[in-house]
Structures are given as C-alpha cells and as structure tokens.
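Dear support,

Our group has been running a series of protein-ligand predictions, and this particular one with 2'-deoxycytidine-5'-triphosphate is the one our PI (initials K.S.) wants archived with full inputs and outputs. We had some confusion internally about which version of the output was final, so please treat the block below as the authoritative record. The input we submitted was:
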Amino acid sequence: NPEENRTTRNGPNEPVAFQLEKLADLQSTTTEKDQFRQRSYKQAANKLRSCPTKVTRFDQLVKLRGIGDKMANKIIEILRTGTHRRLTTFQTEREKTVKLFCGIYGVGQAKAADLYDKGARSVEMIRRDPARFGAELLHVGLKYYEDLLERIPRDEVTELYGHAKRIAYKIDPKLQVWCMGSYRRGAETCGDIDLIITRDPSDGKTHEGAVQKLWKGLVAEKMVRHELTVPEDWRSLDALVHGLIRLPKPGAKMRRIDVLGVPFDEIPAAMIYFTGNDYFNRSIRLKARRHGYRLNQRGLYKDVARDRKGIKLTEGVPVPGIKHERDIFRVLKVPYCEPEQRLP
Ligand code: DCP
Ligand code: MG
Ligand code: MN
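Confirmed final output from the archive:
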C-alpha cells in the first residue's frame, strides 16, 4: 500500500516534504531559474525525508546541506500553518489553471502542469482538440468533467449500493457487500462509492469470481459505463475494479466507483482501512508502530523488528484471534470509536 509505505519509509518530516513536492509541481519551468527553483524544492523534500528525526527549527534546517535560508523560511511557514501561501492563494494565472485541470478525472499535478505548458487554458480548449495537448487518454475524464467534479448525495449512494447488493445476492446469497469510505462514516455527500465484497469460506466456498460477476451484472443493467482499471486476475480474492457508474434513470450523473474483493480473514483490517478517513488511518497505524505492531489494509502483525531508523527488518506475524474491527482497537489499546467519529 503506497500510502503506508510513504509515511513509514519517509520518516517524521514527510508532511512537510509532501508540501514541498507540491510547491515543486506548481513551479513553472519556463526559464532556467524556474527549473533551478523546482529542483531546490525537490532536493529539500528529499533531504527532509532522509532525516530520521523531526526538524522544526530554523537553525536545524540550515544545517542540512542543500537547504538555504530562503528554503528554511518556507519550511518554517509550512510547519506553522500546515501549508504555504502559494498552495492556498492563487498567485498566477498558471497556478489557477493548473488547479482547474487537476479537477479532470485522471489528471494529477504533473499532467495538469504539462497541459498548461502545452498551451491549454481551459477544459473546453482541451475538449476541442485533445491531441494537441497530449490528452487523448483523458477522453472519459473530459467527457464527464462536470459530473465527476460533484460530490454524490448520500441517498444516491444508498440507491447504487442497493443495486449492487441485489445483484450480489442473486449471484450467491452468502456474499457480503459493504459500502465503505465516507459513506460508512455517515457523510452527507461522497466523493465516490467504495464497495468491498467477501464471503465466509467456512462452508468451503469463497467469493472467487464474485467481483467480476457483480461488475458484469452492473454492466448488463447499464449502470456501469466505463472501466477505468481492471484487475490482472479477475479470479483473485482481492480483485479490484474501478470505473464509472450511474443510476439507471434519465438525467442520472456519472459517478466513480471502486469494487474490491477482500479475503475473509482480512476483513477486520480492511474494514478499518476502507472506512478511513486517511488521517485516522495514519494515526492508528502510527500507534500500532509505537507498540511494536504493524497495521495495514490486510492485517495486524506483531513482533515486527525495526532498525534504529524505523525501517522494517521483518514482516512480523499476524496477531491471532482478530475477528472484528473491535479486536484491532482492543489489541492496540485504542478506545473503540464508531465510523462517524473516525477523524484524526
Ligand atoms: N485510504 C487511505 N489512504 C489513501 C486513500 C484511501 O487510507 N491514500 C482509505 C481511507 C479512505 C478509504 O480508503 O477513507 C476510501 O478512500 P476514498 O479516497 O474513497 O476516500 P473517502 O471515501 O474517505 O472520501 P470521499 O468521499 O472523498 O470518497
Ligand atoms: Mg470514497
Ligand atoms: Mn474510493
């Protein structure tokens, strides 16, 4: 899981390093001086990542090779405010437009900057001539740009979830389907629909192939319209598919959906992971680490050996007897909290 790797591998200065990388992405690269600035942000980010202790003071910062006075001041501002002016207030037309392009589904900071640098100034402009800006692969994102910017009203998620459950139970009444993410946290609107699917294998049958059958069912009923990522192996118990879906009625908007298989014994950890939110996940994982455990979306492991820098030396062994989310909270001595309360 990339997110966990990032925080555990990159050490205690990761949040600042992450912001510096965003600044690097925003930096225009027209002149050599611009390119130099972009490199300094990236260097500073890497420097901080290789630092095993948290750096918070000006004098500590300037002692690091490659971080000068100006960069140190920027870092202090990030530490104080959690961000940097340039990331919150738009200063240039380029930054505004890059930010706008990031709203196109499938476009990140780097691609957005690239679109701008190739001369794109509006979504309409890219729509008219995608080839000119190297945007051929953004076809779906451009087509449903307006829909996909919107968050989904909770009732609509409930309705789509209902269709998925109906189809799943027709395939096999013992399949279990849950709607995770912000929906499980009780949010009034959701960015996407996160479904997980599993089956208790104690009668000898698993959910093998169920992700594909459910997906095909949603396609057959004309709800799923676009597959954006498909699994390498549809039959694997952790098959993941990602696409666009809409309710089968006129005027329905296109929404993003993830459907993911979870091996039954991984359900407790997966429930925690996919309920989130991501800040909550980060903090509960940190707590696990402090107690000598390791928690990820697959499970809770004990006896994890780490070196002085916190780099993992052994994978650890699964903690036995974990049947529910609550068991993980209990082992980690974190008071159980309902999904609605799972904020940082
Ligand atoms: N998740 C995480 N770290 C990430 C991405 C996801 O821990 N980098 C976990 C926590 C999220 C869950 O997966 O709650 C679902 O991911 P989403 O991106 O769908 O986020 P949410 O459902 O929480 O919010 P949204 O309403 O924007 O979809
Ligand atoms: Mg979500
Ligand atoms: Mn999601």
